Amino acid sequence: MIKICVADNQPVVVQGVKSFFNNHPTIHIMAHAYDLKSLITHLQSKPIDIVLLEFELSGITSIRDIKALLKEFPTTKFILFTSVSEKMYAPTAIKAGVSAYIQKTITLEELENAIIKVYQGVVIFSEAVKKNIDILSKGKKSDRLFKKLSTREIEVLRYLNDGKKNKEIAEILSLDEKTISTYKLRLLAKLNVTNLVDLLTKAKSLEII
């Protein structure tokens, strides 16, 4: 029996997954979490094989939080089951040790198949992610501008694209507002632009956001 914890902010997602796998012969939903704190509590108290994790779960502010989960619970496999663009985070997440990066646009039958494959040791990611990973390691310099960006810079860029101000981003990432301003200046320099509008336009053309 594959023991699953569904970690998602949205009750409709949790209930939908639980309903689909109810009485499943192989997959058992034994826990659900609506925030990072409750997820950690479940992982510490129950033998969970796989976590279906929404990247935007309450309490998770960056890929660093996911890396910390992977380190603290090395015997549990993590499937990022999310609406967040895979182009932004999937290559980093896969390299960090996540077993799959799956968009919520898939069917429940496809999710079922993915869970079984991950349990068997398969790492799952799309061709688009594979292409981005290849670009990061092999691509021409002109095709690798976003390799210059750190994970934190990409996170700041994502929040800027969401329309958030420096102060809001600082609060979300638990950083000083001046630090966010520094990241913003680095982004402008690294992508060779002079203002926020051009920064976001270029980031979209490079498929970073």
Task: Give your account of this protein's structure.
The protein is an alpha/beta fold and 209 residues long. It is elongated. A 5-stranded parallel β-sheet has the order 2-1-3-4-5, sandwiched between helices. It has helices spanning 11-20, 36-45, 63-72, 86-96, 108-119, 127-138, 151-161, 166-173, 177-190, 196-205, and strands at residues 2-7, 27-33, 50-53, 77-82, 100-103. The mean pLDDT is 86. The protein has 10 helices and 5 strands, in the order βαβαβαβαβαααααα.
Task: Annotate the secondary structure layout.
Blueprint: E1 2-7, H1 11-20, E2 27-33, H2 36-45, E3 50-53, H3 63-72, E4 77-82, H4 86-96, E5 100-103, H5 108-119, H6 127-138, H7 151-161, H8 166-173, H9 177-190, H10 196-205
Helix pairs in contact: 3-4, 4-6, 7-9, 8-9
Tell me the overall shape: elongated
Side-by-side strand order of the widest sheet: 2-1-3-4-5
Q: What is the overall pLDDT average?
A: 86
Query: How is the biggest beta sheet arranged?
Result: 5 strands, parallel
Cα(first) to Cα(last) distance is: 38 Å
**Quantity of strands, as a count:** 5
Low-confidence stretches: none
Secondary structural class: alpha/beta
Strand content: 5-15%
Strand and helix order? EHEHEHEHEHHHHHH
Q: Which bin fits the share of residues in helices?
A: 40-55%
- Radius of gyration based on Cα positions: 18 Å
**How many helices?**
10
